[in-house]
């Protein structure tokens, strides 16, 4: 059973040069392009099995975040097809979907509601979210006063409690402290054992080896390699020093 | 489509609650502003159009201030929903950029939050009308009221879908909407009765044009409750059917436009 199927996914971004009416007519008169097109993802295909942990690896600007946004439904693909079998909880950037002016407690309710939990279910999971995030003392403080570590803790705690079958995690764990990171990795292992599907983007490659089964390597919007996590990470790490040497020369 | 949104009723409840609560945050009178705003406008219009221009005498209207209030409160509901609705998506960019859920939720939230303000305010005006001498409650017209409110909600929602999604692409929409709404108000029977448009000889030939404005007919649906001469039973039935059909048509078309333009909202916002 596949949890995620992506076929020939292509995404272009348009960057308008000048959005005003004046600019529009000038470029129309000059017969030049009104926008610059930028290929963020080109012909990306892959599939993730149910219960599998999948890593997406690539340098900055390789299209990881765009791929994430497409998977979570925020951005619609230009071409190709994305199929998600199951409820998706995305964790994009720090504390995805947290509203700055609301308190931690309100954000828990808001986010649980966004993921379609009933009021009774929200009440059930509320305490365990607070407990996992270790934010008992700050839960009635507006999120805008939270540190980035606190935000990611709250975001991660919510995402793992909304009964999602597919959890998307993007770079969030870079900011938590050591103990919390450890706790997260333990939780991710646990979720994996429960049969949930995880998709992770991370720069800290070491923990990926223990958590993930397979990996996909993105480069400039194209898939360059898909394979087992060790295989891909070895390649990726080998590649790095080479590039550094080139720069030195 | 509706079933999809019903799945998010908890979210809808939360957002409406939040919207209602934060609107009058840091204000002394709080919820009272729902009433104070139309009452202030009513005073202005009564002085200008009632006293200075003698609108009440010319139109043979009893209790002119009450007449204005009955039209003004539904209009304020329409006006505020659309004005806030223009920012329904563009004002929630942080949420839209990070998680996905049906974005129709945002305009619907604005509509419901304003409905929550509108209903008690209108009920209060009903009470005022009942206790005003020379005004008689028309029970037959009162039966139409739920239908009129639902029709107004659907029409308002249709407009809100359109302006909310357009404003993400071009912020000019905000300015256009503000100007349009001001003109639109004067094209509705609020400071003058609809019978004046139908009976004044000089403009009688343009009455059919006037009736193209669905809000004019919807507002006269409210007036009929106390002013039988201004109610729906004096409007050609074909025009009422036209308003109903138009409302559903626009709701369908603007919803489709919303869905179509929504595809790029995550990028451009």
From TrEMBL, chain A:
Residue ranges annotated for the ABC transporter domain, each copy included: 23-245
Pfam families per record: ABC_tran
Record field: transmembrane: none
UniProtKB keywords: ATP-binding, Nucleotide-binding, Translocase, Transport
Family of the protein in this entry: Belongs to the ABC transporter superfamily.
InterPro entries noted in UniProt: AAA+_ATPase, ABC_transporter-like_ATP-bd, ABC_transporter-like_CS, ABC_transpr_TagH-like, Bact_Polysacc_Export_ATP-bd, P-loop_NTPase
GO MF terms held by the record: ABC-type transporter activity; ATP binding; ATP hydrolysis activity
One annotated Gene Ontology cellular component of this protein: membrane
Gene3D superfamilies listed in its UniProt record: P-loop containing nucleotide triphosphate hydrolases
Keyword ATP-binding listed: yes
Protein name listed in UniProt: ABC-2 type transport system ATP-binding protein
Automatic annotation (TrEMBL), chain B:
Compartments it resides in: Cell inner membrane; Cell membrane
GO terms for biological process, alphabetical: lipopolysaccharide transport
Membrane topology (UniProt): Multi-pass membrane protein
Gene Ontology CC terms, in alphabetical order: plasma membrane
An MF annotation (GO) of this entry: ABC-type transporter activity
InterPro entries: ABC2_TM, ABC2_TM_bact-type
Family annotation (PROSITE patterns): ABC_TM2
Keywords annotated in UniProt: Cell inner membrane, Cell membrane, Membrane, Transmembrane, Transmembrane helix, Transport
Similarity-based family: Belongs to the ABC-2 integral membrane protein family.
Name of the protein described by the UniProt record: Transport permease protein
Organism of this sequence: Marininema halotolerans
PANTHER family, A to Z: INNER MEMBRANE TRANSPORT PERMEASE (PTHR30413), TRANSPORT PERMEASE PROTEIN (PTHR30413:SF8)
Domain named ABC transmembrane type-2: residues: 29-261
Transmembrane parts of this sequence: 28-52, 64-82, 105-131, 143-168, 207-227, 239-258
């Amino acid at each position: 059973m596949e949890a995620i199927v992506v076929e020939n996914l292509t995404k272009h971004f348009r960057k308008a040069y000048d959005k005003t009416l004046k600019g529009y007519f000038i470029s129309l008169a000059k017969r030049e392009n009104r926008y610059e097109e930028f290929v963020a993802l080109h012909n990306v295909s892959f599939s993730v099995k149910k219960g599998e942990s999948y890593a997406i690896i690539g340098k900055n600007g390789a299209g990881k975040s765009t791929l994430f946004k497409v998977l979570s439904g925020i951005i619609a693909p230009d071409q190709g097809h994305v199929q998600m079998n199951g409820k998706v909880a995305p964790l994009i950037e720090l504390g995805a979907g947290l509203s700055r002016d609301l308190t931690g407690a309100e954000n828990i309710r808001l986010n649980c509601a966004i993921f379609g939990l009933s009021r009774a279910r929200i009440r059930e999971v509320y305490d365990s979210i607070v407990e996992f995030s270790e934010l008992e003392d700050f839960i009635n403080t507006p999120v805008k006063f939270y540190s980035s570590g606190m935000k990611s803790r709250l975001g991660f705690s919510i995402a793992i409690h909304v009964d999602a079958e597919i959890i998307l995690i993007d770079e969030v764990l870079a900011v938590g402290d050591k103990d919390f990171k450890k706790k997260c990795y333990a939780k991710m292992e646990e979720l994996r054992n429960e049969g949930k599907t995880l998709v992770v983007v991370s720069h800290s490659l070491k923990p990926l080896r223990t958590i993930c089964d397979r990996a996909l390597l993105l480069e400039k919007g194209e898939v360059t390699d898909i394979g087992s996590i060790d295989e891909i990470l070895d390649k990726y790490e080998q590649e790095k020093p080479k590039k550094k040497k080139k720069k030195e020369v | 489509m509706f079933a999809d949104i019903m799945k998010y009723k908890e979210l809808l409840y939360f957002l409406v609650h939040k919207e209602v609560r934060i609107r009058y945050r840091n204000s002394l009178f709080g919820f009272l502003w729902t009433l104070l705003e139309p009452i202030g406008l009513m005073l202005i219009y009564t002085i200008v159009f009632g006293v200075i221009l003698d609108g009440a005498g010319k139109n043979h209207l009893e209790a002119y201030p009450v007449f204005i209030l009955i039209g003004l409160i539904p209009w304020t509901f329409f006006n505020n929903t659309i004005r806030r609705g223009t920012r329904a998506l563009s004002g929630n960019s942080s949420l839209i950029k990070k998680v996905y859920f049906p974005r129709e939720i945002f305009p619907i939230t604005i509509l419901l939050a304003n409905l929550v303000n509108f209903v008690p305010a209108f009920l209060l005006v009903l009470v005022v009308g009942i206790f005003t001498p020379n005004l008689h409650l028309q029970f037959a017209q009162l039966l139409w009221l739920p239908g009129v409110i639902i029709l107004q909600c659907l029409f308002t929602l249709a407009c809100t879908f359109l302006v909310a999604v357009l404003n993400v692409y071009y912020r000019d929409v905000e300015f256009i909407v503000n100007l349009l709404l001001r003109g639109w108000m004067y094209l509705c029977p609020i400071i003058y009765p609809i019978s004046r448009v139908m009976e004044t000889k000089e403009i009688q030939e343009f009455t059919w044009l006037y009736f193209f404005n669905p809000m004019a007919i919807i507002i006269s649906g409210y007036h009929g409750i106390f002013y039988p001469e201004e109610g729906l039973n004096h409007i050609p039935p074909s025009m009422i059917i036209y308003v109903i059909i138009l409302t559903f048509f626009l709701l369908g078309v603007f919803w489709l436009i919303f869905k179509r333009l929504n595809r790029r909202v995550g990028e451009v916002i």
